[in-house]
Design brief:
This is Aquaporin. The structure is a single chain. With 271 residues, the chain is an all-alpha fold. It is built from 11 helices and no strands. Helix content is 76%, strand content 0%. Helix 1 runs antiparallel to helix 2, helix 2 crosses helix 5 and helix 9 runs antiparallel to helix 10.
Amino acid sequence: MADLWVSLTVLGAAVLLSEATRRAAARLFPGAYWIYLLEAASTFQLCCCTHELKLLGETAQLELPLSLALTYTMTVIHLLTFRGATCNPSGALESVCRCTSTGKAAVILITCQFAAAVAAQFFAASVWSLGLSDIHVRHQRFGFRCFDPLGGTVLEAAAVELACAFIVEAAAMHVHKVDEKLQAHCIAAVITALVYTGGSISGAVFNPVLAFSIQFPCSGHTYLEYCFVYWLGPILGVASCILLFEKVIPFLSGKSTIGLDVPAAQKQKTQ
């Protein structure tokens, strides 16, 4: 139980540090730079918290209800504090496809996300080096190594990541139909269910930059295999979801695709 409280403190510290950064950036760098700093701070928060949750789940042997409750709670906190940041390269690529952002802006945004993901690795290692809990001490003893995150074959893991990304994107595209106060909880419930369902096969990350931070340093598979699972899988999942709901279904139903970017705009406001 002591390990759990230490990890909860680390999670709280990461959220508070990121929130302070977001508020300072809003005051000091209003305008275009704010978007990039928002993405960096929010991605840093997401990766730091996931590092700690992953370590806690793998070593503390938490009961399943508690583990899922932590996943759900932290997801709600992320959604309520991100202020529209996607923390996902797929979101930046989607904005380019929808012509709401330029390719240059997307490249800068993705660069900020990956820089934050690397910073989160250093932050997590620095916290673990303090030896605040037994699980931190044991992790430090093994040199902060993580092992094969795949519980299935590469193809199975890629399929899970694709399916998870598809389902989350579909939920995000239609969550505007739910009462605004419940939108974050609906998305969090979907993500928690996916983590429970696909976590044992691929980790159910469905986010290329998050996977780069928490899964790519792990042994067991090559860099290209991780790229196939955690980068290609989610990107194809998001792309196929957009294609299905905004092109295929309207075409088959005979409806025009004009105005289908409205749900996407509403979705950005709720993330």
